[in-house]
Amino acid sequence: MTPPEPLIIVVALLLDLLIGDPRWFPHPVVAAGKLISALDDRLRLPWLDEKIAGVLLLVAVVGAMMGGGYLLLRLCAGIHPLAGITASVILCFSCLAVRSLHVESGRVAEALRSGDIVAARHNLSWIVGRDTDALDEPEIWRALVETVAENSSDGIIAPLFWLTLGGPLAALAFKGVSTLDSMVGYKNERYLQMGWASARMDDLLNFIPARLTALLMICAAPLAGCSARGAFRIVLRDRLKHPSPNSAHPEAAAAGALGVQLGGVSTYSGVTSLKEHIGDPHRPLDGTSYDRMIKLMYISTLLMAAACTGAAFSLRGFGAPIF
């Protein structure tokens, strides 16, 4: 795995900003999800330790993602160099989620603004893991800000980070791990052992990107009409206030920049979870907070893209092959 040409990063990001994740597109994350579902039951053998089964699941899914990507790149490059470049761009584009994060969260915001809280709860259920049926309007806005902040790291900054370091294969490996964590990385009876390896690997791969996201949001805050000083202060104070070693970093930066308080009580599959509060409630959680969060996300993305393009030039130069 080697870094891609800088132009590939730029074109992939532009494609994502323009068209997002069209439903007709054969997305590798969907394929990964189907593979995980198929292997989940098949690896639960009476004689096989669940933790070992979880390791095998991790290796199989990541190996399939990287192997499939490698074969596609080699096949297309063998047909024509332009086909190889196109395949690389498409794979990189498929690993990013800027526009889709805006579109999916925007559906929730639009429903709230039109007064349809039932539709808002339903739309929210597609993008968060918590129970949404009983959430009131402020709690829905809180969930929106939290998920956009966290997914700015998981769905945008982290893929760009791994794409810059190792090209489309590294980005695909990250997406495979991220998909595994979202499907089996739960601390419940079914996945406590089986999902352990995937959850720990996700923590590892997101360690640097989560902290980068916090730094980028601090830098982006003044450009988004938010407080860089508040973001910096809350990151220092609240960056570890989360069960995950990474999630509180972008959430703390967002909360401090927006002047809002995140965290509190959430329910997952009927089980109540009390998370420590992040940030201070200087401003209400409402549509204005969401709009500023979206601005933070976009500006942080552009700052990261600029850094990644510069890093790719340094790592590869202009005349290097694409993989």
Q: What do you see in this structure?
A:
- The chain is mainly alpha-helical.
- The chain has one domain.
- The chain contains eleven helices and two strands.
- β1 (262-268) and β2 form a beta hairpin.
- The radius of gyration is 20 Å and the shape is globular.
- Residues 318-323 have low confidence and may be disordered.
What fraction of the residues are assigned to beta strands by DSSP? under 5%
Biggest pleated-sheet summary:
2 strands, antiparallel
> Gap between N and C termini, in Å?
7 Å
Mean pLDDT: 90
Number of strands: 2
What would you say about this model in short?
This protein is mainly α and 323 residues long.
Lay out the secondary structure.
Blueprint: H1 6-19, H2 28-42, H3 50-79, H4 81-94, H5 98-113, H6 117-125, H7 137-184, H8 196-220, H9 228-238, H10 248-258, E1 262-268, E2 271-278, H11 287-316
Antiparallel strand pairs: 1-2
Helix pairs in contact: 1-4, 1-11, 2-3, 2-7, 3-4, 3-7, 4-7, 5-6, 5-7, 5-11, 6-7, 7-8, 7-10, 7-11, 8-9, 8-10, 8-11, 9-10
